[in-house]
Design goal:
The chain has 401 residues and is α+β, with helices and mostly antiparallel strands. The chain folds into 2 domains: 215 residues, PUA domain-like; 159 residues, 3-Layer(aba) Sandwich (Trna Endonuclease, Chain: A, domain 1). Helix content is 27%, strand content 25%. The protein has 13 helices and 19 strands. The strands form 4 sheets. Strands 1, 3, 6, 7, 8, 9, 10, 11, 12 and 13 form a 10-stranded mixed beta sheet that branches. It has a 5-stranded mixed beta sheet with strand order 15-16-17-18-19. Strand 10 and strand 11 form a beta hairpin. Helix 8 packs across helix 12 and helix 10 packs parallel to helix 11. The longest helix has 14 residues.
Length: 401
Amino acid sequence: MCNPWGMKSFKFEELTTVPLVVDAVYEGGTTGNLNSEVLSKLLSARDDKGKALKVHNAGGFRYRGPRLKPLVVALTSNSSEPAWPDSINPFTGQLTYFGDNRSPGELHETHLGGNQILADVFARFGDGIIARESLPVFFYFTKWSGYSQQFRGLVVPGGIGVTSDDQLSAIWRTKGGSRFQNYRALFTVLNIPEISRQWISDLMLEEDKLLNAPESYKRWVKTGKYEPLVSENIVQVRTKQEQLPQDEVGLKLVAHIHKRFEDKPHDFEPVALALWGLLSKLPMDAEVTRQAVDGGRDAFGVVRVGPTSDPLKLDFALEAKCYGINNSVGVKETSRLISRLRRHHFGVLVTTSYIGHQAYEEIREDGHPVVLMTGADIANVLQANGHDNEKKLDAWIDTIV
């Protein structure tokens, strides 16, 4: 059946018999407790004695099998922890997933051992066929509503062109004044639209792992080559809602920036430039223009791509708009930036609000090379870099202005 959003969905009563379909929603029960939980029913099978073998029913890492050598791991995400922004890049098929040490404590001593699983898997997956076949199979889910879950795909560690330093890294965070580390892991979502019930049963019962496995997974095990699930976004103009933060933490961060700079918008310009640096992650040389002679741009510079010994330098001009979230950036402001772009230059518009529909549509339909960084993008990049409350945000801003 389909839910109101047009996605395929399965009833709670069907969970032990249905396949895993990418982006399908698996509905939770109605009891309001763990009896309504989805994954321990969906990822389960019965042995010849009728015993149910299944993954755990709670936590971010829900596995079946021994703690240190699980057979199957369901990775889960929800929107209630914006400090840990798990996300899929649809253009590369890569999943950024944070471990389960989310409060001060030793990196590997977590309740369900999720970080220890990550450490073991990422240490071994490059060691050849036997090592890859021995690894647990990872399925990724995101919370839908209540106990319902959405299946996002089968994921494997690492990815195309990912360096060993980026595959699994321990990052620092602060909570309650205490510093601690957690893992940030990079997986690839394989191009597998559906997982058969037979293979789920094979995995749960410790049968031949590859006999009924999807071809893309078999090839990864045998060769180490990735076939990512990539998807081009056909929506060229984001709505106001899509351009603004949808979580409480994100809204507070953007509102705090606006409040701090609404009476001195020129001071926001170096912050906007730094935000662009966080988003692009590209080496750059840039500077903020003097207020009296900005020539229609608040900052300008170059980003460098390619080898450090001979990089290609791409010129850009940046416009910063510190607006309240209900005050859109319109055609007048975007035209001002576009008119200052010279041949082979691109523009960057950074705003704490959103781009009005007409201005956004004209930029995209006319093919202007302009990056649009709105309130939602600012909130996401701040939280992804650990600036997830007003105190941390102010400390970061104080290093800039």
